[in-house]
Amino acid sequence: MKATKAEFKEKSACAEKYSPFPEFITCPKCREEIELWTDEEETVCFFCGYKVFKNERLTN
Ligand SMILES: [Zn+2]
What we know:
By secondary structure, the chain is α+β, with helices and mostly antiparallel strands. The protein is built from one helix and four strands, in the order αββββ. The protein has one helix at 4-17; strands spanning 22-26, 33-37, 42-44, 51-53. It is rod-shaped and about 60 Å long. The N and C termini lie far apart (50 Å).
């Protein structure tokens, strides 16, 4: 008596929710706005070449 269909539905909705999308973050070095995809832990600043980690981003 398992609600298999409902489970599948929930899973696909979840996957959609967590599909990556670009976020704008501020480079801590040059303060320019750069893109960081939500599935990436780090990116290189397009402007100054600084390696920006997701947990290093400035939130203001
Ligand atoms: Zn930069």
